[in-house]
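The protein record filed below.
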Amino acid sequence: MKRILLIHTGGTFGMALKDGTLAPSAFVQKILEFVPEVKRIAEIESHIVANIDSSNIGIEHWIKIADVISANYERFDGFVIPHGTDTMVYTATALSFMLDGLSKPVILTGSQRPLSEIRTDARNNLINAVELATFSIPEVGIFFNNKLFRGNRTKKLNIWGFDAFDSPNYPPLAEVGVGIEIYKENFLKREGGKLNVLKNFSDKVFCVKIFPSLKIDYLISLLNLDVQGFVLEAFGSGNLPNIEGRSLIPFIKSAVEMGRVVAISTQAVYGKVDLTLYQCGKDALDAGALSCKDMTTEAALVKLMFLFGKYGDDTKKVVEEFYKPIAGEIS
């Protein structure tokens, strides 16, 4: 029987388990009480990293999770991480970059309703995440509502429904129905080797959602802050205002001249950024902006955090590496 380690971080999934300090053994007993079926799938152990709302998850938690995986990598066949839904894609993306040489499944899951409630999606998500973690899937994935997605391609799209997540620009890695369909052709083609955990992240990034009549003065003021990289979530295929009095192009030029990175993502869910399609985008490209292409905004942000953590103030190296896939986050 395969061995699976549950790495608990908190979120809606474990809210019913809230009884002060949560010890690993108590957590497993609660899980087995509510979902005894998992004992038929694998031997289950657990580790508690945190028991918090995922809004409070940060770099320090990403590192703790990666350390737990690294310390237990040889003992377990797969890892399942119950996690709050709100920041799940950020954690999944960070782990996909951190776990260099990963050859085992690392699957984040959670729920829209707590595990203890009668009408909950937590049981289904946990059972299937555990079963998928027994397969040879060398990815950091997110399992929700019967689909396994590549974590760094996933977005939370639904607050209300059980189908909370989707992967707009990349197909699922697996689907669960009467049977289990594994789509190996969609797996990341990783080179073999030993797991190597890369832990350095910079928190000197900033994201701005562009909207009509945004004052450039607000953006220019950000250049006084210690920000290494900006992600501008633009319109459509990456378009920004470029007319006199409203143009954001001077901000991009100033930022790039100061050695900052400016990356353009899109507010659209499907499709990719193409800064050559319209003049509004081309002006940003000519000013030195990078295109996020088909990366999600979340993946672009975490990628900048990761690259600046890895290369420090070497902006040229960060720009060079931005377009290269680290873990299948960009086509």
Summary: The domain at 205-322 is CATH 3.40.50.40 (Rossmann fold).
